[in-house]
Amino acid sequence: MKIPDTVSSELRDIVLGEKMEEPRVSSILKGYGFENTRLAHKNLKALAGNRPQAELFLEILPVFTDALKDCPDPDAALNNTERFGEACYSRMNLYSYLRQNPSSIYMLVGLFGSSQAFSNTLIRNPEYFYWLSGLDEKKRFGGKDELRKELFSELKALRSFDKRLNTLRRFKRRELLRIGYLDLVLGTPLVSVTRAISDLAEVELQAALQIAHEQLRQKFQIEEKDPGKIGFTVIAMGKLGGEELNYSSDIDIIFVYSLEGLGPKEAVAAEYYHRLAELVVSSLKSSTSEGYVFRVDTRLRPGGRFGPLVRSLNAYCNYYQTSGSAWERQALIKARPVAGDLRLGKAFMDSVTPFVYQRFLRMAEISEIKRLKRSIERAAEEKGETHLQVKTGFGGIRDVEFTVQFLQLFHGGQHPEVRHYNTLRSLELLEETRCL
What we know:
- By secondary structure, the chain is mostly helical.
- The protein is built from 21 helices and five strands.
- Strands 1, 2, 3, 4 and 5 form a five-stranded mixed beta sheet that branches.
- Helix 7 crosses helix 12 (161-185), helix 11 packs parallel to helix 13 and helix 12 (161-185) packs antiparallel against helix 13.
- It is globular and about 80 Å long.
- The mean pLDDT is 92.
């Protein structure tokens, strides 16, 4: 990438601290997109520092100002750049690196001017900048297998339970930064971004299950087995099940076990699976010095927060056959096995599919779905958010999801091709089968 030749002599004078009247400084800085010109002036002088550092900074300034042209918030970009420079071990080393790698300047400005959360991540961990800059295309767009290989490799060298939990948190923070770069700077399509966040959540779940299993295995005298063969599976629901997580989504999960998976007596095995589920949840949502991994919601299980955290496959089958409701059928549309014994996960899906996609949708079930939708609308109305809330207001996410899921329940019994966990893909399938 060719670096633009130079900046204006007036901007150079501002950076070097040459005496200039305040109105003129403000006018020049406004021309570069800054609104808070006083802070921008202060930031520029801080970035320049002493003379040798200032001369090096001036060499990269043309690219920096060029990057600001497409930046959503130039003031935030500059202020976060100054904070980042302060956090780095050596500004001279940073500026030398940026001079040799000018594309990294666009990456920094794009992130610093788009997301305060990602800015804070880089300022807290400046080493992530060099890691992100050095990724080749394969790792930059790495999929689930690549993520899993990398995380499990990092965990393998650790024995401490607490250190492993903190590794989960650092890994998530770093990888979310990578995804944010793909999204905010490179313009990666929405579907790819939400799938990447969902892939990250799946891998973190798989790792949390591995850690929890190893922590409990000896206490319950479980022979050494891979968590994928112990008769215990994690079923993703909601946005994780649909591969459509956003940056701040909770993860909705339920737990299923089979007594055929372990050697101990039934009572011991049931207690083990319950403790395993509890430890998986706490491993992800508890706060440590490194924060948390994901907020976890398990209320989509039978009985909600008052029901058992984990049930056997047979218990799930009996429940849905005798007590399952329309909203649970709706929720199970997005069910998808993501961790543990995936053969058990497939057996779970096979057992609930006839419950979800029945041949006909009865009027009582249609009325139940309508009532649930009305209750969501009333909550938005009471808060005065009917036309503002992107999730629950008119034309919001819930409107789209309820429309798609209702049509899947209505037609899915006779048209298996419309059965899918992802909302956007389901829309395509409904259209292709002329059900939309």
